[in-house]
Design a protein that fits this description.
By secondary structure, this protein is an all-alpha fold. The chain folds into two domains: 49 residues, lambda repressor-like DNA-binding domains (434 Repressor (Amino-terminal Domain), Orthogonal Bundle), CATH 1.10.260; 31 residues, no CATH class. The protein contains six helices and no strands.
Length: 82
């Protein structure tokens, strides 16, 4: 697991079944939005952090998350001009 938390502690904190979390970790199940929200909460990340891929659009989203509002407004204005 990426966070500094044991598997058992993670299972306990997120309230999902041990087997389900194991399958989720191995990519054998597709989580519901509720399950994603629980995992994100325990890991202290957003749901978007859990599902963001590597397409240019997704990378832009990830990279822009820490920008101040004025910088995001400039990016939006530039995108709308195209």
């Amino acid at each position: 697991m990426a966070a500094d938390i044991s598997f058992d502690a993670f299972v306990e904190e997120c309230g999902l079944g041990r087997g389900y979390v194991s399958e989720l970790e191995r990519g054998l199940v597709v989580p519901s939005l509720t399950a994603l929200a629980k995992v994100a909460t325990v890991l202290d990340v957003t749901m978007a952090d859990l599902v963001a891929g590597t397409s240019p659009r997704e990378l832009l989203f990830t990279e822009s998350r820490g920008l101040p509002p004025a910088a995001i407004a400039r990016l939006l204005a530039e995108a709308r001009r195209r």
